[in-house]
Design brief:
The complex is a heterodimer of chains A (about 600) and B (about 400). Chain A is an alpha+beta fold and about 600 residues long. Chain A folds into 5 domains: about 5-180, P-loop containing nucleotide triphosphate hydrolases (Rossmann fold, 3-Layer(aba) Sandwich); about 195-275, Translation factors (Elongation Factor Tu (Ef-tu), domain 3, Beta Barrel), CATH 2.40.30; about 295-365, Alpha-Beta Plaits; about 375-480, Alpha-Beta Plaits (2-Layer Sandwich), CATH 3.30.70.240; about 485-595, 2-Layer Sandwich (Alpha-Beta Plaits), CATH 3.30.70. Helices cover about 25% and strands about 35% of the residues of chain A. In chain A, the strands form 6 sheets. Chain A has an 8-stranded antiparallel beta sheet. Chain A has a 6-stranded mixed beta sheet with strand order 2-3-1-4-5-6, sandwiched between helices. In chain A, strands 20, 21, 22, 23, 24 and 25 form a 6-stranded antiparallel beta sheet that branches. Chain A is globular and about 100 Å long. Chain B is about 40% helix and about 20% strand. Chain B has 16 helices and 17 strands. In chain B, the strands form 4 sheets. Chain B has a 9-stranded mixed beta sheet, with helices on both faces. In chain B, helix 7 (about 195-210) links the parallel strand 7 and strand 8. Chain B starts with a helix and ends in a 7-residue tail after the last helix. Classes of the chains: A alpha+beta (about 600), B alpha/beta (about 400). Chains A and B meet through helix 13 of A and strand 1, helix 9, helix 10, strand 12 and helix 12 of B.
Chain lengths: ~600, ~400
């Protein structure tokens, strides 16, 4: 196809603002699928996405469309909608020349929509404003158009007003895609460079790479080279998503499709890598994506120790099509062998956990999330640490720096007080207040990531009756009055429970933890002090009282068999425990303390 | 060294279980059948704590039945011909619930059978003895009596469902002495719901005042299937506070030690030389034979527990069949662990040489980590040639003993 008639675009939208419905209508209108075939939200191939109503993985579909008497090839590259998936949004956008920004006519702009719109602009994509659900009674398209103009600078009369559900305005929108979005640059004469923007693993065919050809072209049986490692493969199949996989004889410049080349090793394929021709390689790879900024860390342990190898295999698969996820082996005194995992944010973490359990049927225990810190050492060097246990000796530490974010919260004017009170209690500093319209306000904060990474979002959702949305963006590390608190069980520190916290929160956080411990650890033959310490100084203490009486009064001939059974059982129970400073702690107790789901 | 030959040379004990009581005490989980209010036909199975006073005339009604059972028990004893028992113990239930002539008959036959018995104990209810019965038992060869006194507070006896008075305890001990018994024990119960430390001290002092040779002090436990267990679950009774239970226990250990009745086992105290030899046999994990319905034996490496159904028992004995019940063959590991657990209940602890002789293994090596840990915690000590619990470990002994219930 003539490159002037190719359009590559994404739809960016907040959750439930109708992105997937719009994609379905487009697939129908272009005859890519029939209405009868149309399963709802066909682009979302994972169950979990459909259930949560969010799109996690980007994927691409090729559609044919006729506009002004000419045939066009429209490649719709799907993007995730959530705050945590900046990285995936940005890499989908890199494969596009344009983006449709969809806003719900009754709900208006949400914090995350805004963030994604900024990303599209940064990626150089042309943006079309789309107001969806205009057929609903609660729709206020004029007000929303004003918001879009106010916040994004897209003129209100240039916004498309549609109903993805009924199909109203969708044909006009497709026309606009052909007319207003730019075609890919023509680099068909240059050496092959194809961007791998996604991938997944097929048990029979190996790694399937989702690619956007930027220059040159791909052909079946071509010998290709992955530029990051220099490894070479022969293409066994080339194709497009229509939306099912269909082989083609060529993928030319500007086109989007998939490549199968008998790649068996998961580690060989990295999202963002460039495919080139082995015989006529390009001198430089494409500018890959910025490596994702992992800001949230959490430990995953198999619920059952024997599942460790399976957990590792499962993580390898997840990492294959989620470059923003990382994992390294971890050995905890309390929980045995597991992995320390890095995530973009909290939702990303939850999704990985659910995918683990659903796709691999592995039960995992997940520790409360922490953030990454920077440590300035006395010798002037700077270290990055992802876990409190990595914190170097106190005497060698000049300062600890924590990640700060620019936090945007959009909420209603009547709930602003509660949201601001919460934000202040979490050390957030208000930078700006912007009234989007008389009932909606955008609060702009400078916030420590550690304070918002745990339950902040749930809390503002509660305060605002579900109305508020938020988005954050990493801005940099800043020194703070941060301390490491240690939890001592019977005077022995339990590394798995250490935390880095702001000094002002140290006692409250530490006390909460030891109260949970006190409830979870069974009584022993001796009193067990539970302490919270900063450096060597104890700042809080709880005590587990000793057993006072646990002895069978009568043990004669007729009692021996029964009593031995009881004692054996008592011992079995002890065996399942971890010993910390002569205190037997049931693994379940550790799990209940560390697990976030309480 | 290890093997059945070691068992056969060990002195054995004989236990005879009389599964009758005049009425069922509210706390008692032992197998027995209350005879009061029973017409003697069929097997009484319903346990009723609120039966009327038991006229002695009642004896006559169920005499044939108990007579048949006593005869069956003696026939069971015949199965152990040639076995030398060093101790004998008739317990229950309540042996004195039997008609006196049947109890005496049983005692005489046992005494004849056991020529060289060192200790022959009969458990007695203080309200069910008279001078004649005690004198006859003494003459029959019984040399030790154990009275179920339980408490010297009338209200506590009432709550426990005991059918004797405070005065009858003193009278019974006096009668025993006059009958020529110089080895008399009293059982006491503490941590009775609503009782205070002062109540407990009163009972203990009263027991000391009777100048007995042996006192057992049992913390009340709520056994499944007892009236007390039901009452606790429906809120009518509350167990005493754990701290008070412990205080009562620590106090009695101290007090009896002061008056020359040192503790020799978790719940047992005696003048030097008067520890119950029969029971010491259990704690040394020596073999014993249990006779009667519901009785347990440790014999030739098996732990056997008879079914408690009296009819089955009698039918099996009378027809020379195997008595229905549960048999557990003990392995090498069981013998090690049971010996350790049982011995640790005594204040003497586990004698290292005796342990090695009996089990063929070195205790300090077998349980090295556990012993070291508890020594570090001050809960165990190695004294010369034995390993034992320290005094502070006694109230929480089970939490320690469980570590010896299976090998590392």
């Amino acid at each position: 196809m003539d490159i002037q008639h190719i359009r590559n675009f994404s739809i960016i939208a907040h959750i439930d603002h109708g992105k997937s419905t719009l994609a379905d209508r487009m697939l129908e209108l272009t005859g890519t699928i029939t209405a009868r075939e149309a399963k709802d939200q066909i682009l979302d191939s994972m169950d979990i996405e459909r259930e949560r109503g969010i799109t996690i993985k980007a994927s691409g579909v090729t559609m044919e469309y006729e506009y002004a008497g000419e045939g066009y090839m429209l490649n719709l590259i799907d993007t995730p909608g959530h705050v945590d998936f900046h990285y995936e949004v940005s890499r989908a956008l890199t494969a596009c020349e344009g983006a449709l920004l969809v806003v719900d006519a009754s709900q208006g702009i949400q914090a995350q929509t805004l963030a994604n719109a900024y990303l599209a602009t940064e990626a150089g994509a042309e943006i079309l404003g789309v107001i969806n659900k205009v057929d609903l009674a609660a729709a206020q398209p004029d007000l929303v158009a004003e918001e879009i103009e106010h916040v994004l600078g897209i003129r209100k009369n240039e916004c498309f007003r549609i109903s993805a559900k009924t199909g109203m305005g969708v044909r006009e929108l497709l026309d606009a895609v052909c007319e207003l979005l730019p075609p890919p640059a023509d680099r068909s004469e240059e050496p092959l460079r194809a961007l791998i923007y996604d991938s997944h693993y097929d048990d029979y065919r190996g790694v399937i790479c989702y690619v956007r050809v930027v220059s040159g072209s791909l052909k079946p049986r071509q010998k290709i080279r992955l530029m990051r490692l220099g490894s070479t493969y022969q293409i066994t199949e080339l194709g497009k998503f229509r939306p099912d996989m269909r082989p083609v004889e060529q993928l030319g410049t500007g086109e989007v499709g998939y490549v199968i080349a008998n790649i068996r090793n998961l580690g060989d394929v990295r999202i963002g890598d460039t495919i080139t021709d082995d015989a006529r390689p390009a001198p430089d790879p494409l500018k890959g994506y910025q490596p994702p900024m992992q800001m949230v860390f959490s430990d995953f342990y198999p619920g059952n120790n024997t599942e460790y190898p399976r957990l590792r295999a499962a993580f390898e698969r997840l990492a294959l099509n989620d470059a923003s996820f990382s994992f390294v082996p971890q050995n905890s005194q309390a929980l045995g062998f597991g992995f320390r995992c890095g995530f973009l944010g909290l939702l990303h973490m939850e999704i990985i956990q659910e995918r683990l359990e659903r796709e691999n049927d592995i039960d995992v225990v997940q520790t409360a999330p922490t953030v990454s810190y920077e440590v300035l050492m006395s010798d002037g060097t700077v270290q990055r640490i992802d876990s409190p246990s990595e914190l170097p000796d106190r005497t060698k530490v000049e300062e600890i720096r924590e990640p700060f974010v620019r936090l945007e919260i959009i909420t209603t004017t009547d709930t602003i007080g509660g949201v601001m009170t919460l934000a202040e209690s979490r050390r957030c500093k208000l930078v700006k207040t912007d009234y989007l319209n008389p009932t909606r306000v955008m609060l702009d904060y400078k916030a420590p990531l550690a304070e918002i990474v745990y339950d902040f979002y749930d809390q503002i959702k509660g305060i605002s009756h579900g109305y508020a949305t938020m988005n954050y963006e990493f801005t940099g590390f800043e020194a703070g009055d941060l301390v490491k608190i240690d939890i001592l069980v019977n005077h022995t520190p339990v590394e798995a429970l250490s935390l880095i916290v702001h000094r002002s929160n140290a006692e409250a956080r530490g006390r909460k933890l030891i109260i949970k411990l006190r409830r979870a650890i069974p009584r022993h033959q001796f009193e067990i002090p539970l302490q919270v310490a900063i450096g060597g100084k104890i700042i809080a203490r709880e005590t587990i009282k000793a057993y006072r009486k646990d002895v069978t009064a009568k043990l004669y001939g007729g009692d021996i068999t029964r009593k031995m059974k009881v004692l054996k059982k008592q011992k079995e129970g002890k065996k399942r425990m971890k010993s910390v400073g002569s205190v037997e702690i049931p693994q379940e107790a550790f799990m209940s303390i560390l697990d976030t789901s309480d | 060294m290890v093997g059945d030959c070691a068992l056969t040379v060990e002195p054995a004990g004989l236990y005879v279980h009389v599964p009758f009581c005049r009425s069922k005490c509210r706390y008692c989980g032992f197998y027995s059948v209350p005879t009061a209010g029973w017409d003697g036909t069929g097997v009484p199975s319903r346990i009723s704590p609120r039966l009327g006073a038991p006229p002695n005339a009642m004896h006559r009604v169920w005499e044939p039945y108990t007579g048949r059972l006593v005869a069956a028990m003696l026939r069971e004893l015949d199965r152990y011909e040639g076995v030398q028992f060093r101790t004998a113990y008739v317990g229950g239930g309540s042996p004195t619930a039997l008609p006196p002539e049947q109890l005496l008959g049983l005692a005489r036959r046992i005494a004849e059978r056991l020529e060289q018995v060192e200790e022959f104990t009969v458990e007695c209810n203080p309200g069910q003895v008279d001078a004649e019965l005690l004198a006859d038992l003494r003459r029959a060869g019984v040399n030790r009596l154990s009275f179920g006194a339980q408490s010297f507070r009338a209200a506590e006896l009432e709550l426990l469902g005991r059918r004797h008075t405070v005065e009858e305890i003193g009278r019974a001990v006096e009668l025993a002495r006059r009958a020529g018994f110089d080895n008399v024990g009293l059982d006491l119960i503490f941590a009775i719901p609503d009782s205070t430390l002062a109540d407990w001290q009163y009972s203990v002092e009263a027991a000391i005042g009777l100048d007995v040779q042996h006192i057992s002090a049992y913390s009340l436990s709520f056994e499944p299937g007892t009236v007390f267990d039901v009452w606790r679950r429906n809120g009518r009774l509350a167990p005493v506070d754990e701290e008070l239970d412990r205080a009562m226990y620590e106090w009695v250990i101290d007090r009896l030690g002061q008056v020359g009745l040192p503790q020799y086992e978790i719940s047992n105290f005696a003048r030097p030389g008067f520890g119950c030899r029969h029971n010491l046999g259990y704690w040394a994990n020596r073999p014993y034979v249990g006779i009667g319905p519901g009785a347990a034996s440790y014999w030739q490496g098996d732990r056997v527990t008879h079914d408690s159904n009296m009819e089955w028992y009698m039918a099996a004995v009378e027809s020379g069949q195997k008595i229905p019940g549960a048999v557990e063959r003990l392995g090498w590991e069981d013998r090690i662990c049971e010996t350790a657990v049982l011995s640790l209940r005594t204040r003497a602890g586990i004698d290292l040489a005796a342990f090695e002789h009996k089990t063929g293994c070195d205790l300090l090596r077998t349980f090295a980590a556990t012993i070291r840990r508890y020594c570090d915690l001050g809960l165990m000590e190695i004294t010369g040639c034995a390993v034992r619990l320290t005094e502070q470990a006694l109230p929480i002994a089970d939490s320690i003993l469980c570590d010896f219930a299976a090998l590392e």
